[in-house]
Specification:
The chain contains 10 helices and 12 strands. The chain is of the alpha/beta class. The strands form 3 sheets. An 8-stranded mixed beta sheet has the order 1-2-5-6-7-8-9-10. The protein has a two-stranded parallel sheet with strand order 3-4. Helix 1 runs parallel beside helix 2 and helix 8 packs across helix 10. The longest helix is centred in the middle third of the chain and has 14 residues. Bound molecules: iron/sulfur cluster. Iron/sulfur cluster binds next to loops. Iron/sulfur cluster (SF4) binds next to loops.
């Protein structure tokens, strides 16, 4: 089975080429909402689950044949930081291509300095954090018994202080599990310290590992979003797909360029988003054939398609 997946259009990352660094299903968690399924190897052991040589061969082939993507994304059927060659793979990719690296991680190993160092080789890190208090953490993430949420949170905070790229923190809400006022309050306190570039608030939108794991309504998600500091996007809602986000960058960009052609700079001003976010959003909208780029003189404008 190939360790490459895609490139596929991703709402969060534009055109994303997935690199699976662990096979089914090696993870340090066994989240009740996991859409991959139950963890079959619940472990904290770092090893070369997918070989560096295999990644080099497949990704090298992809790149030398002219393959492109907006991001090369470390993901897989579990937790990519469990692969002990993460740093070597990331360094090799950085030497081979200018395509930025995204890391999807549950951050459970961020208490380890080596993992923080290796993770910092990515350009964008998308860690998840669903709970702060130990009982809720155990209920929602069903972690390896040696994991302590306090150390994970400390590791994440430490990582955020030294990381030069962007952190997009994902919090997944499960009804009746981590949506109580006190837990949301605790999460908000931690989020203040991590100060991520943005928070992506999610809920159960695909079949979960454990039956009866229920989503929040869009209204509840909106109420919870208000409790967090900074920029919050609601990225999943089963009840209202037409309004995916209270700060929906896709809609905001599309609405703007449907009315008048804009440059990336214009859109940064209008939306308040970063250059990286605006470019990622534009690429995703171009892929959906909803926006086109038009060059006028030296300037590249983006125009919405009706
Ligand atoms: S951390 Fe991710 S892959 Fe692992 S069990 Fe949770 S949702 Fe699934």
């Amino acid at each position: 089975m190939s360790c490459l997946f895609g490139p596929v259009p991703s709402r969060r990352l534009g055109l994303s080429l997935g690199v699976d660094l662990v096979p089914y299903k090696v993870c340090s968690y066994n989240c009740i909402y996991c859409e991959v399924g139950e963890t079959t190897n619940l472990t904290l052991e770092r090893k070369e689950y997918v070989s560096f040589e295999e990644v080099k061969r497949e990704l090298g082939g992809f790149l030398s044949s002219g393959g492109g993507a907006d991001y090369i994304t470390f993901s897989g059927f579990g937790e990519p930081t469990l692969n002990s060659k993460l740093g070597e793979v990331a360094r090799w990719i950085r030497a081979e291509t200018e395509i930025p690296i995204a890391l999807l991680t549950n951050a459970s190993l961020f208490w380890r300095e080596d993992v923080r160092e290796e993770a910092s080789l990515a350009h964008v890190v998308l860690p998840s954090l669903d709970a702060v208090s130990p009982p809720v953490f155990r209920e929602i993430n069903r972690p390896h018994p040696d994991l302590e949420v306090k150390r994970i949170v400390e590791g994440l905070i430490l990582f955020s202080k030294g990381f030069e790229g962007e952190i997009w923190l994902e919090i997944l809400m499960v009804k009746g599990v981590n949506d109580q006022e006190e837990e949301v309050e605790r999460l908000a306190e931690v989020v203040k310290e991590i100060a991520p570039h943005k928070i992506q608030l999610n809920t159960v939108v695909r079949p979960p590992a454990v039956a009866n794991t229920s989503p929040l309504t869009y209204h509840d998600m909106e109420e919870i979003a208000k409790r967090f500091p900074g920029k919050v996007e609601i990225v999943g809602s089963p009840t209202d797909h037409s309004a995916l986000s209270i700060n929906d960058l896709d809609n905001s960009v599309l609405e703007t360029v449907l009315r008048r052609p804009c440059t990336v700079k214009d859109l940064i001003k209008v939306t308040g988003a970063s250059e990286l976010e605006v470019k990622t959003t534009l690429k995703s909208l171009i892929l959906q054939n909803r926006v086109e780029g038009i060059k006028i003189g030296e300037e590249l404008f983006y125009k919405g398609k009706m």
